[in-house]
Design a protein that fits this description.
Layout: H1 2-42, H2 50-72, H3 78-102, H4 105-117
Helix pairs in contact: 1-2, 2-3
């Protein structure tokens, strides 16, 4: 019974991870698309580097969640593979969040844009 409870809990958490990865991926792709559609009008030369990074992080997180969900229903080295995948995904998300928080290029572009209009 304990094993089934762990599988159900793990599956529910993997479902949330898939949902969050889809949200990150969707927002990143939408922002890149909108930036390309309206970037020329605003004086931006290219897409900020954080958007492709966020897209990659969302895609990797989604693939890892689907892989971990598949592994959760098998017994072949389940704990070790899940732990390895989780550690890698946590590190990738921490690095992506750190890069996202330290990326000031969008703020600098916005500042130069408003100074050009004045």
């Amino acid at each position: 019974m304990i094993h089934k409870c762990n599988i159900i809990t793990s599956s529910a958490l993997r479902g949330l991870q898939i949902l969050f990865a889809i949200v990150v991926l969707g927002l990143s792709v939408t922002l890149m698309k909108d930036h390309n559609d309206h970037g020329g009008d605003l004086g931006y030369s290219s897409v900020p580097a954080i958007l492709p990074i966020s897209t990659g992080i969302g895609a990797i997180s989604m693939v890892a969640a689907v892989f971990s969900l598949t592994i959760a229903w098998t017994n072949f080295l389940r704990e070790y593979i899940e732990m390895l995948v989780d550690v890698v995904i946590v590190l990738i998300n921490i690095v992506g969040g750190t890069v996202s928080c330290s990326d000031q290029s969008a703020f600098e572009n916005r500042t130069t844009l408003t100074s050009k209009r004045s």
